[in-house]
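note to self: dont lose this again. the chain is below, predicted strucutre after it. 226 aa total, dont forget to put it in the shared folder this time
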Amino acid sequence: MGRLILSMDGLVLKEIPLNKENLTIGRRPSNDIQIDNLAISGEHARIVTILDDSFLEDLNSTNGTLVNGQAITRHVLKNNDVIELGKYKLKFMSEAAVGEFDNTAQLRAAGLSTEPEPERTFADTQIMIPRPVAPPPPIPRVTIRLLNGPNAGKAMELAKLLTTLGKPGVQVAVVSRRSEGVFLTHVEGATFPTVNNSEIGGEAFLLRDKDIVEIAGIRIEVRVKA
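---
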């Protein structure tokens, strides 16, 4: 079956298999793919999958649906098509492409190849002198300390590159540790999280040492170390 890869600002949020004939997308909880963002209509779009074909249809949404940058009403999805819904993107991977990817990955993991190695001659051989490459910037370490609630005063280090904070159904955000810095991204909820009492908006927000984040009523001090 085909898949959709949901992302925002380059951050992958989740993968959705197209395992239903009708799959709806929108802001309301009744949708198969709920995107709780004001730019998304209550019932924004739907995908109909029949055998190996998937069709995207805009449901008269307020802000429209884009595929590869073009507004559509109905569209036959092709491998690597990118559906744009406000700040969110859904990349479509067809069943054939998914199967090919999975098989190739398995063969390579086993030390096999689907194609024979080409014969090499002396002319094909080049002596490469490696250039010194600067190491990538280190990924910052992040520790959070709860400032209110029953666990006030407790601290913990975020060991994962992606950490979800908040309360599902109320307000959820993701903290991502990257070499460029530490970012907070709103994922779910009618209002945005705040940093130092100001809403972060829909874009990934760069956190700094000693910032105070509030998510779903919980206040958190963020400590960032290089």
